[in-house]
Structure to design on (297 residues):
């Protein structure tokens, strides 16, 4: 009806018009422009702006989420300062406790800012896939060595499986971040199972990839994740359990970073989980092509 009214105005009165029409239930969004023609009649231009509208919605949500994530620790720190300036001014034990809490909140902000900068840097490189070679086996070893103290403190045993060496086309530093993010999440949220398996294996082309890939599998034996959350886990700031995630020091950006790194590497992330059955995260990265044999003299 809205489009017909615009067309009617153009035909009867020579009046141009425009409207934005959204399908009910969050469907397509279209911009319609109607222009009268000098010799009679009218031209109707329809532009599907759904992607632009969705991008703007995501931008607004992202800004709102960043503001919320930064406001919470800042509010806590301001409250601690007020207490230290008042009732706890002469209480040494209270001062020590509140200073410790302030340090924790400041560290939370630092992690959030580091993750935001990392995500922005990865997005800038998205159109330029890596061309170098990386030994994913060595990447996994470095990541596990760095996370060993955290795993030990949580009472979690890290179990490495698969070949020692597996070459992929990729950026070793970014791939190490993928391993660390996945294993750290497994320790934090699946560590109640007492162990985390980190496997590495070659896979033939398939599963959404046109070329053979290395499959990095990080599996925990914790409480698992309700399947309703799985499609959204890689969204920025999405948390299956917001309170538990913040208590564990999560920024809500770890899996988003993993997804963007794998997208840049022309790989993908597969997540499987059921409540009570733990969770499995499989990062697929294209294998490096066979090195050409040296020419015979």
């Amino acid at each position: 009806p809205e489009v017909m009214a615009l067309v009617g105005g153009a035909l009867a009165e020579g009046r141009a018009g425009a409207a934005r029409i959204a399908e009910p239930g969050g469907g397509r969004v279209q911009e319609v422009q109607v222009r009268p023609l000098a010799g009679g009649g009218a031209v109707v231009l329809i532009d599907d702006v759904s992607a632009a509208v969705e991008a703007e919605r995501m931008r607004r949500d992202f800004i709102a989420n960043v503001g919320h994530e930064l406001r919470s620790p800042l509010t806590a720190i301001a409250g601690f300062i007020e207490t230290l300036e008042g009732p706890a001014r002469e209480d040494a034990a209270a001062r020590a406790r509140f200073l410790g809490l302030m340090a924790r909140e400041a560290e939370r902000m630092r992690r959030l800012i580091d993750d935001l900068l990392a995500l922005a840097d990865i997005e800038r490189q998205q159109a330029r896939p890596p061309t170098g070679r990386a030994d994913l086996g060595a990447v996994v070893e470095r990541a596990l060595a760095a996370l060993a103290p955290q795993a030990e403190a949580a009472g979690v045993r890290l179990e490495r499986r698969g070949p020692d060496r597996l070459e992929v086309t990729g950026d070793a530093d970014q791939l190490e971040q993928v391993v660390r993010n996945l294993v750290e999440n497994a320790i934090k949220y699946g560590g109640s199972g007492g162990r985390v398996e980190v496997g590495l294996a070659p896979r033939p082309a398939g599963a959404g990839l046109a070329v053979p890939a290395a499959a990095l599998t990080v599996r925990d034996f914790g409480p698992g994740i309700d399947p309703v959350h799985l499609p959204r886990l890689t969204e920025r700031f999405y948390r299956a359990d917001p309170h538990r995630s913040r208590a564990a020091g999560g920024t809500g950006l770890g899996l988003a970073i993993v997804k963007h790194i794998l997208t840049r590497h022309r790989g993908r992330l597969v997540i499987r989980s059921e409540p009570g059955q733990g969770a499995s995260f499989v990062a697929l990265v294209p294998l490096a092509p066979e090195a050409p044999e040296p020419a015979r003299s």
User: Anything to note?
Assistant: Residues 133-286 form a domain with the Heat Shock Protein 90 fold (CATH 3.30.565.10). The longest strand covers residues 195-203.
